[in-house]
């Protein structure tokens, strides 16, 4: 039976749905797509019964739809075209000011101009030219008229931030902490060299975890916390000397022992976790601390490796991740998967997230009225904790007694204790990202005590 020259609307709709469903259930090759696209326009455009709006939409679809490449699904192109049309409609409805506001909501990039001379001056030659991240933005946090008579650097690292902040005209007391003895030793030499030009400045450095900041400051001066300190900085990123030292076990690309301890005196190593912890606990670490989607299979492979003696080097762990990623396709390649695995193990070994939360509360309590706490984080887990803790510090809930009638602890929110100066985190400038690719994920948040 010959096909009607003017197919019904129902028939046309059937053909459209059929092509989309075919694209979902079967990958269409170039030949199939060519035939379909050659006949479909005539089939639809011959009709005179379609409404104007439906006809125009269909015309736009058929004209703009490219011939699919071999293996491409037609449904993907339909979805992409629909997204483009929705984006155009939203863009036309919004004013330029609204579009700009949406961009700011997604990311607040620093508006400061990169001072290259400043970065060269405070880069650490002993650390392979390690550059302090967002140095200009950190200096701006504590710049006059903000008073900075006392300052604490909770993460000395290579000492780049500290060396720059010490130049503040009002600086009288400096305290530097680092849990890593190697980083502390290098930074201490650098800071002592700077003290020759500042005879009125008292400086103290200690190998301590920043969660013990209260006891450290009490040991420096028992009356110091009566007033508090004017500025505290926490740079949560790893220094280049830690990553580049293969003996520390932090690097994915170099072979070394599975250590990953920030404090060499710590009892737990990454090797202990991989070779003795239950599979469920290893999977939880990879899922929660590494945000790794393939955590279940990776944890199974790690446990299965114990049959052959277990994992004892970073190269063995990286090779295991590479094989697992080849099986599942990975996410952006095996190196990024391995980076997430190494991050998860490092966080577990050093109990980084719980330590960070405890330290944030302790640091805020050590601030003077008007004092500022600046925190630079480098992954979403850290930034989430900083954001949540800052919000809790602003409206701190305290116990005020027991309600005898309901046998419950009564809580109330007192006066605001602080003010968050960064509604959204500040990220590096594009110039800094080009200069130092390691800073791309950095986020700066600032809170001021009232």
TrEMBL record:
Q: Which UniProt keywords apply?
A: Methyltransferase, S-adenosyl-L-methionine, Transferase
Disordered: annotated span? 86-106
Q: Which GO terms fall under biological process for this protein? A: rRNA base methylation
Q: Low complexity composition bias: which ranges? A: 88-101
One Gene Ontology term of the molecular function aspect? rRNA (cytosine-N4-)-methyltransferase activity
Q: Which domain of life is it from?
A: Eukaryota
Say if the entry is tagged with keyword Phosphoprotein.
no
Q: To which protein family does this belong? A: Belongs to the methyltransferase superfamily. RsmH family.
Protein known as: Ribosomal RNA small subunit methyltransferase H
Organism classification: Eukaryota, Viridiplantae, Streptophyta, Embryophyta, Tracheophyta
């Amino acid at each position: 039976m010959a096909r009607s020259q003017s197919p019904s609307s129902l028939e046309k709709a059937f053909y459209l749905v059929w092509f989309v469903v075919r694209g979902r259930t079967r990958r269409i090759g170039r030949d199939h797509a060519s035939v379909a696209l050659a006949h479909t326009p005539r089939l639809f455009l011959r009709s005179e019964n379609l409404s104007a709006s439906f006809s125009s939409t269909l015309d736009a679809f058929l004209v703009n739809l490219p011939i699919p490449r071999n293996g491409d699904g037609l449904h993907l192109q339909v979805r992409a075209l629909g997204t483009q049309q929705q984006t155009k409609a939203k863009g036309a409805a919004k004013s330029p000011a609204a579009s700009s506001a949406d961009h700011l909501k997604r990311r607040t990039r620093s508006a400061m101009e990169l001072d290259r001379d400043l970065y060269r001056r405070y880069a650490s030659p002993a650390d392979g030219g390690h550059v302090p991240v967002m140095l200009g933005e950190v200096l701006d946090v504590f710049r006059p008229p903000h008073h900075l008579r006392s300052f604490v650097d909770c993460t000395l690292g290579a000492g780049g931030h500290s060396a720059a902040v010490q130049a503040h005209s009002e600086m009288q007391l400096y305290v530097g902490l680092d849990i890593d003895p190697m980083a502390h030793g290098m930074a201490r030499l650098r800071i002592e060299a700077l003290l020759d030009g500042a005879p009125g400045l008292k400086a103290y450095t200690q190998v301590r975890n920043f969660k013990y900041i209260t006891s450290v400051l009490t040991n420096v001066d028992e009356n110091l916390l009566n007033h508090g300190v004017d500025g505290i900085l926490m740079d949560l990123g790893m220094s280049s000397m830690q990553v580049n030292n293969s003996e520390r076990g932090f690097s994915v690309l170099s072979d070394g022992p599975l250590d990953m301890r920030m404090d060499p005196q710590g009892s737990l190593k990454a090797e202990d976790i991989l070779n003795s912890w239950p599979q469920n606990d290893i999977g939880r670490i990879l899922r929660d601390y590494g945000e790794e989607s393939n955590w279940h299979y990776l944890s199974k492979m790690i446990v299965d490796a114990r049959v052959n003696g277990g994992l004892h080097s970073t190269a063995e762990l990286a090779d295991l991740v590479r094989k697992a990623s080849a099986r599942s396709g990975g996410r952006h390649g095996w190196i990024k998967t391995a980076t997430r695995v190494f991050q998860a193990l490092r966080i577990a070994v050093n109990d980084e997230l719980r330590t960070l939360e405890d330290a944030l509360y302790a640091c805020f309590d050590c601030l003077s009225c008007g004092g500022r706490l600046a925190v630079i984080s480098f992954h979403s887990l850290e930034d989430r904790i900083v954001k949540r803790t800052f919000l809790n510090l602003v409206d701190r809930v305290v116990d005020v007694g027991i309600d005898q009638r309901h046998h419950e602890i009564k809580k109330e929110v007192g006066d605001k204790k602080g003010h968050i100066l960064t509604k959204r985190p500040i990220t590096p400038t594009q110039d800094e990202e080009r200069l130092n690719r390691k800073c791309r994920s950095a986020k700066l948040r600032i809170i001021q005590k009232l």
